[in-house]
Amino acid sequence: MKLIIDDAHIDLIKHIYEFYPVDGITTNPSILAKVGKSPYDVLTEIRSFIGEKAELHVQVIAKDAKGMIEDAHCIVEKLGKATYVKIPSVPEGFKAMKALTKEGILVTATAIYTPMQGFLAAKCGASYSAPYVNRIDNMGYNGVQVAKSLHDIFKSNGLKTEVLAASFKNSQQILELCQYGIGAATVAPDVIEGLVKNQAITSAVDDFVKDFEGLVGKGKTMSNLQ
Ligand code: E4P
Q: In this structure, are residues 182 and 1 in contact, taking their beta carbons and an 8 Å threshold?
C-alpha cells in the first residue's frame, strides 16, 4: 500500500518526507484554502520539492465536463505529467474522465461514497478511485468496507484502477486497509505521525538507552565507546 500525504503545507510535507517512507502528495481545494496562498505557487513549490516524477494529485474546480477538462489541461501543463488530476465522481466528472484518460492524462476519481461510483470511474479509465473512509463512517456506514468492496470489484472485473483511500481519522482505519492490500492511502500528517505515537514504544526505546548508559556512561553510544 502506498502511503501518500494529504496536505499542502510545505513545512509539514518536508517534515513527513524527512522521517517517513511516503509516496507523494494529494491535495483538494479545501486543503489549498487552509494554506491561504496562491494555489499554483503552493503546488509548484510542492512539485519542485518532491521532484517531477513523484505523485502529486490536484483537483479540478469547474463543475461541468468542458471546464473540468480545461482545468485538467492547465494543471498538467503547470505541474507536469506525473500529476494526477482529481475529478469528482459525478456524471459531468465521468464525461471528463473518459476524455482525459483517452488523452493519456492520469486521473484520480474523487468524492467517492459508494462502490458503484468507483466502478464507473474505473471503467472511465481512472488510475485511482478515492473513497472517503472517515466521512462515510460519519454518515453511519462503514468506510473501510466501501474501500474493500472497491478493491474487490476492481480485481474481480480485471480493472487496473487502484483504491486510493482518503479521509482518515485514526490508525485502525489505515491498518485494516493495509492488511487488505489496497493500492494506496492518503493520510494527513498528524494521522501519519499518530501511527507510531505510543507511550509504550517511547518508553521501550528510552529504557534501552538508560540501561546502556548505566553500563558505559551518559552520552555514550555504539560509535563513541573507547
Ligand atoms: C482526498 O481525496 C480527500 O479530498 C480528503 O482525504 C478528504 O479528507 P477529509 O475528509 O479529512 O477532509
A: yes
DSSP letter at 81 equals: T
**pLDDT tens profile 29-42:** 999 999 999 999 99
CA of 57, closest atom in ligand 1: 2
Distance between CA atoms of 18 and 12, rounded to whole angstroms? Answer: 10
Helix locations, the chain, DSSP H: 10-19, 29-35, 39-50, 65-79, 91-102, 115-123, 133-138, 143-156, 171-180, 189-194, 199-216
Q: Tens digits of per-residue pLDDT, 66-96? A: 999 999 999 999 999 999 999 999 999 999 9
CATH code (residue 91): 3.20.20.70
Residue 200's domain spans which residues?
A: 196-226
Q: Do residues 33 and 143 share a domain?
A: yes
Q: How far apart are CA 170 and CA 168, in angstroms?
A: 6
Clarify whether residues 82 and 159 are in a common domain.
Answer: yes
* Annotated active-site residue in 86, 123, 155, 218: 86
Count of domains in the chain?
2
59 Cβ closer than 6 Å to some ligand 1 atom = no
pTM of the model: 0.95
On whether both 32 and 84 belong to a single domain, the answer is yes
Q: Which of 124, 121, 145, 115 is nearest to 133 (CA)?
A: 145
Cell of 132: 472517503
